[in-house]
Amino acid sequence: MDFDGNNQDTESSRSFSDICIVSCGILKADINHLQDNGFINAKKILFTAPGLHEWQPELKKQLVKQLKTASTVSDKILVLYGQRCFMDPGDPSRVTDVLIKEECPGALRIKAANCVDMLTDLDYREKTAGSKKVYWITPGWLKHWDYIFKDWDKGKANEMFPQHDKIMVADAIGYYEKLMIEDPEKILKISDWTAVPIESVNISFNRFKSLLEEGAKILNEGNNL
User: Fold this and answer.
1) Are 140 and 189 in the same domain?
2) To bridge 88 with a disulfide, which of 71, 78, 92, 94 should be the other Cys (CB 3.0-4.6 Å)?
3) What is the reported pTM?
């Protein structure tokens, strides 16, 4: 075993113990799994409602509120939101990072385009999709589907989903398989509404863990300022 202190420094730099996480609720089940298994020991975890990209004013309101709460807990804040989950309708250049810096300059957003990208990188998605056009989602999308798409009618669904060959769930927690046993009608209902078959692919948390550790390291070393 190496006792020169390097391992200790590395573990310390990647610790979440002084960090407050602010996340979209779409990732709650995934984060809870990592927390229950001892990977995340954050000082506090705050969630917004899931899928608020469909309601930009509400996304802004809830994210700002949670950032302000987080700033009372810690000066190290890691935000789990995608690059363009927020986009000001009146100013397309005012995206998630701009909003975060306006409200909480010391906060750091995880380096991913969206929640799917947090769990699986583009190379993996392209290889898995092959020649098929895939609409990728996470378990949280499946769980909160009715809420996320509550304002969509069948016509809007027909504009979006049938251009894809299938919907693919990037699942590291076995939610899809559990749902197939406990409530298969929900999956069938979503598939009927979208007119697209739904499949699941089992993934690891390796990418998500790596991104979280990278964010923690930057915050703990003060390199985000």
Assistant:
1) yes
2) 94
3) 0.91
